[in-house]
Amino acid sequence: MAERLGRPVPPDQRRHKGWVGQLVEAALGGEAGSAAGPDFPHLGVELKTIPVDARGAPRETTFVCAAPLTVLGQLTWAESPVRAKLARVLWVPVQADPEVPLGERRLGSPCLWSPSPEEDAALGADWRELSGLVADGYVETITAHRGQWLQIRPKAAHARIRTWAPDDEGDPIRTLPRGFYLRTRFTARILAAHYRLPSSG
Amino acid sequence: MTREATGGRIKRLDEAVANQIAAGEVVERPASVVKELVENALDAQATRIRVEVEEGGTRRIKITDDGYGMGREDAVLCLERHATSKIQRVEDLDAVRTLGFRGEAVPSIASVSRFTLTTREPTSDVGTRVTVEGGRDLLVADVGAPPGTTVEVADLFYNVPARKKFLKRPGTELSHVSEQLVRLAMCRPEVGFKLVTEHKTLLDVPPASAHDPKGRLARILGADVAARLHAIPDDGRAYAVQVQGFVAEPGLSERGTKGLYTFVNGRFVRDRTIQHAVQDAYRTLLERGRYPVVVLFIELDPAGFDVNVHPQKTEVRFARTGDIHRAVAGAVSRGLEAQPWLQRGGAPEAWAPSPAPIPEPQSGDPARARTSPSAWAGRTGAGRYVPELDLAQLIGGAGPGRGASSGPTALPSSGFGRGGPGAAEPTSGPWSSTGAAPRAEWPASGFADVLGEAPQPYRATPDATPRERMRFADLTPIGQVLGTYLVCQAPDRLVLIDQHAAHERVTFQRLRTQRRADALEVQPLLIPLVLELDARRDNLAQDMASGLADVGITLEPDGEGRWLVKTCPAALRDAPLERMVLDLLDELAELPESTAMEDYLDALFSCAACHTAVRAQDRLQVEEIRALLQQMDEIDFGAYCPHGRPVFVEWSAAQLARLFHRS
After folding, report:
1. What angle do CA B563, B566, B568 make, to 5 degrees?
2. How far is B438 from chain A (nearest CA, A)?
3. Where are chain A's structural domains?
4. In chain A, what residues touch B579 (CB-CB under 8 Å)?
5. What CATH number has the domain spanning A2-195?
6. Is B341 helix (H, G, I), strand (E, B) or coil?
């Protein structure tokens, strides 16, 4: 695919994080990049690649979108960028076994997914808990342990980047940018529900 | 070329020679003589027919009936070719209901034997005897004779040595004669048949046993066979082609088609369409090369088929073969789907789960964890394994024989097919000439004879409870022996289940049912499986990829000389995919070009199911065994694996007691 798109294959992804996702998005003609809306606005579809190991388990959490820390407290779950992004997702599994060189990794069959009512409710509950903590000024205390399926973690190209967030008095403070991520347990459930996993036979 | 041009070299054949030539088609062996003459007796409304043979019929055949006989004129006329009382006009052929009609048989037989016909009409005071030798020297005399007709055929083919040398030894010819009478006796229950040789009576079936078809079959085929034949349930619908009769449980099968007793409008026929339909219905219940035993009575409008295809009239030509195939396959399937061989007598509580506790694993049990078939429900994390049992310990120790009831005491039944779910007796056809059937005595069905013992007969009681179908889920798992067989207990029997065969059938049936409902559940692979095929399989893959797609396996070239497996049926998610796909390709290569779609799919599903099923030496947890037993109840044909091998065998408490010489 990289050859067809004229994109050189990097030796590894340490300095090219998201290279596979961008490649797939380019191949499919995606537009939105990391904007708040879905990658394919006319279809309402968000593209997400999931790196999986040899047993079919997700190797890492899935970035959903950046967390708008200053306005989180004003948004409901229904208005949230997380819900907008996850309303309809095209999951594309990507072979990510470290033993397979990047250029030889295969893409899996894509799966078009929308959250079930139960999943939507659980994600909404996580959102309300996390956004409530941010709005109340506890952004610095939120760890990756918070949230059943959704988590907030620092998301920045390097440690010197800062953005604004409210403190417990409502005053703005400088802090690391944050992003919403889906836990691997959640994406593993989606994969197990839709795919025959390598570990099963 | 005209007659004039040849100078009159073409001559009209002498009648006797013409008859001998015709005999070449009609009279093949003593059994053909018996068939033709007994059919004449049946057409003459005989109620009792006695057949005596010497040296397999090669020396002498004597057939005596109590039919309406013939007057002197008819007795002579019947020896002329194409003289018959059964049809008069061509149009009559479309509505032939008699077994004979061509008027060829008697003159043909008389032309190749020393033939004597003695007959008297009941209203006549005097009978007639006609004797012919080799079709010549006709002698007619008035004689005293009982009402009816007796035909004696001596020295068959004495004047046609070329034919005589093709006769087999007397024992073989006798078996053919017997087979002919068996067929005739089956389709005419109101008639008594007797077959007598120099030494003994081989068949003695009294008339008027139409109310007891199983009893009749028991006298004709033997009690063991009859006990394993089960009536096709009446689905209460009217069809243009009516099919009734009996199907054998799959455990009763033959190497050839000898056990296919198929009758069309009361006439035994051998027909490929019917045979194929029967085999279709039994597909996956019988091992390759085995044929079932069925007794089928097919009734349709006489205009719907032509019996005038061959002088022996065992071949027919149907106007609408598709209708015949559907009707036969449908009826046989109905009989099989009811799985009457799994039915048990007794009240439902007789199969209630046993309270016997399941032993905990022995200490130091080396049970290894295995990947649980994902389709199995109810597995707990803790997981208890049933103990591995020693077979000797099992039989000699606290087997079910001790605690269970001594013998099949809970077997009151209204008799096979009555009162049981979906197992009504045929309501028409040859067995319907009398009213309601009295309760009868016949052997219990099932696998009671696994030890080689004849099933024990039991007497049905008038107020017997309906039969209950055996529920595998009600069995109590006791252990596993030889790493392969699940030992289970019912209140009155011990059951051994082949775990691989059972799981294989469950998976196979699930795939088949989904496919037939056009709802085969297919899953994409998370990451396609890459296959590097050798040249032979690469060719196969190119030819057969679409065939594999029919069973939910998507095989696509990756453009670099390899193949990608992209989807797989969800029911096969535990199968070792690479091995399975390779075997499926090999299986496809083995199938004949003209394999029917259903056979083709069954072959693939069977192969695939085999790969998915638990293996011998797989230790199963109690929950897995229970889930498997439950799934066996949820599918049709749970008693046989897709290759036709039995899934379970059982011993009743009585059989176990006999093994140990317990009174």
Report:
1. 120
2. 57
3. 2-195
4. none
5. 3.40.600.10
6. helix
Residues of B in contact with A195 (CB under 8 A): 523-526
A124 in Cβ contact with A76 (< 8 Å): no
**Helix (H) and strand (E) counts in chain B:** 18, 29
* Structural contact between residues B52 and B61, judged by C-beta atoms closer than 8 angstroms: yes
Check CB contact of B375 with chain A, cutoff 8 Å: no
| Whether B288 contacts B643, CB under 8 Å | yes
Residues A177, A174: Cα–Cα separation, whole Å: 9
Per-residue pLDDT band for B208 (boundaries 50, 70, 90) equals low
pLDDT, tens digit (0-9, with 9 covering 90-100), for B552-579: 999 999 888 889 999 998 888 778 888 8
- Write down the pLDDT at residue B384: 56
Q: One-letter amino acid identity for B441?
A: E
Alpha carbon separation from A15 to A12, A19, A98, A155, B562 (Å, rounded): 7, 9, 16, 15, 32
pTM exceeds 0.90, yes or no: no
CA distance A95 to chain B (A): 7
The secondary structure of chain B in percent helix, strand, coil, rounded to multiples of 5, reads 35, 20, 45
Closest-CA distance of chain A to residue B429, Å: 53
Question: How many residues would you count in chain B?
Answer: 663
| Helix, strand, coil share of chain A (percent; to 5) | 30, 20, 45
A-contacting residues of B 535-574, CB under 8 Å? Answer: 566-568, 570, 572-574
Tokens representing residue B290 in the block: 């085995």
> What's the first-to-final CA gap in chain B, in angstroms?
88
Q: What is the mean pLDDT of residues B618-634?
A: 87
Contact B118, B127 (CB under 8 A): yes
Q: Tell whether B521 lies on the interface with A, counting CB pairs under 8 A.
A: no
Main-chain phi, psi angles of B495, to 5 degrees: -125, 130
b or e along B427-439 (b: 16 or more beta carbons within 10 Å of the residue's beta carbon)? eebbbbeeeebee
Contact assignment for A109 to B575 by CB distance below 8 Å: no
Among all residues of chain A, which has the CA nearest to that of B575?
A201
Q: How confident is the model at residue B98 (pLDDT cuts 50, 70, 90)?
A: low
